[in-house]
Structure formats: C-alpha cells, structure tokens
Design a protein that fits this description.
The complex is a heterodimer of chains A (about 110) and B (about 260). In chain A, helix 4 (about 70-85) runs antiparallel to helix 5. The mean pLDDT of chain A is about 90. Helices cover about 65% and strands about 5% of the residues of chain A. Chain A contains five helices and two strands. The model of chain B has no long low-confidence stretch (mean pLDDT about 90). The chains are: A mainly alpha (about 110), B mainly alpha (about 260). At the A-B interface, helix 1, helix 2, helix 3, helix 4 and helix 5 of A face helix 5, helix 6, helix 7, helix 8 and helix 9 of B.
C-alpha cells in the first residue's frame, strides 16, 4: 500500500490534471474574448497534435534523425500511405495504426532500427 | 440551503450514469469515434503502466497514479522524478507545465462548457484528454445554442471519454501487472503516436489547417530542447499566429485589389 504522504502527492498531481483541463471554464465569470482569438482557436487542435506527433517521429535522442533507416519514420510513412489510400473512409484511422505497427515492429525488433 | 447545495453537488456530475447522456444516440457516436483510435490508447496505456513500474514506482503507487492523475505525458514526466525523491512542489510544477496544452484546449471548449453547471464542467473536463478534445471539436465545429444540441454535445463527450477512460485504465493496470514480461524496447507505445497521426490526417482537410500542421511540427522540433515539453505550447502559439497572419494578409490583399 501507499502512505498518506504519497497519496497526498498523487492527489496534488490529479489536481494539476483537473486545473489544466478545466483552466478556462473553472470559474463562472464572463471572459472577454476577442474575435481574432476565437478564429485562431480553430487551428489549435491540429497544431497541438502535430506538436506532439512530429517530434515523436523525427527526433531521436534529442536530435533530428539523419537517416531513412528509422523504424518510426517508415512506420509513420506506411500509416499515412494507408490513410491516403483509403481516402480517410471507414476505419482508416484504425488501419493507420495496424499498418504502421506492422511495418514498425519487424524493423524495430528484428533489425533494431 | 446547504442541503440544496449538497444535493446539486451530488446530483449533477452523474455523467455516464445519467440516462439523458448514455441513452442519447450521440453517446454511441462518441464511443464509436473513441473505438477508432482505441488500439493506440491501449498500447500507450500499457506502456505507461510498464514504464512506471520499471522506473521503480511500485505496483500500488503506479496503480493509484494511473487512477488519480489520468494523464500519460504528466505521469511519464514525474515518474523518474519521484523515484529519486524530488520535492513535491517540483513534481506539481512539472505536472502543471507538461499539461499546459490542456489549458489551450479548455479555452476552445469554454464556448461549449459554459452552458453546464460547474460540477458537471469539472467532472467531464477532468476526463478530456488530447484525442477526446480533438474528436469532439471535429464532430461539433460550432457550439450548440439550444438545449437539445447541448445535450447531444455532452452525451458525445460522455461516450467518447468513457470508452477512452476504461480502455486506458485497464491497459495501464495490465501493464503494471505484466511489467516484467513486456520489455519497453519493443516500442509498443508507438501505436499511440500512430493513433494521433491517423487523427492528424483526418484533420488536415483544408490548406490553412495543413499550414498549421507544418508550422507547428517544425516549431515543435526546433524548440525540442525546451524543458517540460514546453515546445508543444510554443508550437501551438507559432502555428495559430502564422495562420491568423496569413488570413489577415489575404484579407488585406483582397481589400486592396
């Protein structure tokens, strides 16, 4: 089991999750919100995902990869190719995951790329 | 007075247990969307569970952490710090900074959320992770203005977040139990990246959005050396600013010609 101090630490971290995820709708107060900011937000979802995904694929040990012999690069390329082939129809996202892993795992575990 | 406040506090955040949400057709739509990316979420949760135990956190602590903190990137960021006895305020500051991208999401979600009482906002808000947010705003580009539309939004969120939460927790606990059998070196967590990438593909439907993708990706790589994953925040700001600038320039050109 865990002690009271550890539990309090975890509750503190859970509060950080709650606080950040509800940051701008925590209070009932009105929030002055300029129209340009509202327009800008429509570009936020794709920007957030790209900011998480692109370094995961292109950065290795803190550096931009310099070889194409990289399991993550080729796995990601295969996934995107499958998505384009399916034109995003049906379970294209599911297929992206399956095809990407089918290319990634053999290269990564088998060849150590 | 106190009785009434207590009643509303207990009564409102029923979320998944509220028939108005789980009987609504949008609940199923939300679950179906979450299912599209589920293998990625499961693999990612599994590897997060494995990582916590292998970093020396212990099965009990790891289980409580996944149940309470419910945020993969924050968990992975604080785990190594906890193993070496870092002061609590540093852990909390780390958790806060790593999660800052959620604050941007919450700004976007504000237009949808303010129709609901605070307890309900906080309950569902706590559960909205990256993909839940993205799929939700993809499905509901504009906040509804009528009660029926707002209920459909809430039902979608409940279904979407419910399936993600269950899948993540089961996979994480499985990872904690199997920690010695699943080597991190297999790289199963890459399925999580592929899930995000699939959604990224489905989002890049217009030229401006593709601009946002490219600018953000480049900025995130360029600012990779920043601590606490703050490169993500820099990248979002850069992409949004660039897109607004291009919009403005196009407007001015049109007005000038």
């Amino acid at each position: 089991m865990i002690d009271a101090f550890e539990l309090l630490t975890l509750l503190g971290l859970a509060t950080m999750t709650l606080l950040t995820r509800c940051f701008f709708f925590f209070l009932n107060r009105e929030l002055p919100f300029p129209a340009w900011a509202q327009r800008g937000l429509q570009y936020a979802p794709i920007a957030a995902l790209a900011a998480v995904v692109v370094p995961e694929v292109l950065v290795n040990q803190g550096h931009l990869i310099s070889t194409w012999q990289d399991a993550r690069l080729l796995g990601a390329a295969a996934g995107v190719a499958y998505y384009a082939y399916r034109r995003g129809q049906g379970q294209a996202v599911l297929g992206t995951i399956v095809v990407g892993m089918a290319v990634y795992l053999p290269l990564h575990i088998g060849l150590g790329w | 007075m106190i009785g009434k406040a207590l009643y509303s506090a207990v009564e409102t955040p029923r979320m998944f247990l509220d028939p108005a949400n789980f009987r609504h057709p949008a609940f199923r739509t939300g679950m179906a969307d979450a299912f599209k990316v589920a293998p990625g979420i499961w693999a990612w949760g599994l590897m997060t569970g494995v990582s916590m135990v292998q970093a020396g956190l212990g099965p009990a602590m790891s289980t409580w952490m996944t149940l309470l903190v419910y945020g993969g990137s924050a968990q992975l960021a604080v785990t190594p710090l906890m193993a070496v006895g870092t002061p609590v305020w540093v852990l909390l500051a780390t958790g806060f900074c790593v999660n800052l991208r959620f604050a941007v999401f919450s700004l976007h979600l504000r237009g949808y959320m303010m129709a609901w009482p605070r307890w309900q906002r906080l309950t569902i808000g706590y559960l909205i992770a990256d993909l839940n947010y993205v799929q939700f705003v993809q499905n509901h580009p504009q906040p509804a203005t009528d009660a029926a539309g707002q209920r459909a939004e809430m039902a979608y969120l409940c279904g979407n977040c419910f399936l993600t939460w269950v899948g993540w927790q089961v996979a994480s606990i499985l990872g904690i139990v199997l920690a010695s059998q699943v080597p991190l070196a297999w790289g199963l967590g890459f399925a999580g990246v592929l899930a995000l990438m699939g959604i990224l593909c489905s989002l890049s439907s217009s030229r401006m959005r593709t601009v946002s993708l490219v600018v953000s990706g480049a900025a995130a790589v360029a600012a990779y050396a920043l601590p606490l994953r703050l490169n993500i925040l820099v990248a979002i700001a850069a992409a949004v600013a660039m897109c607004l600038l291009i919009e403005k320039t196009a407007e001015l050109n049109k007005a000038g010609s």
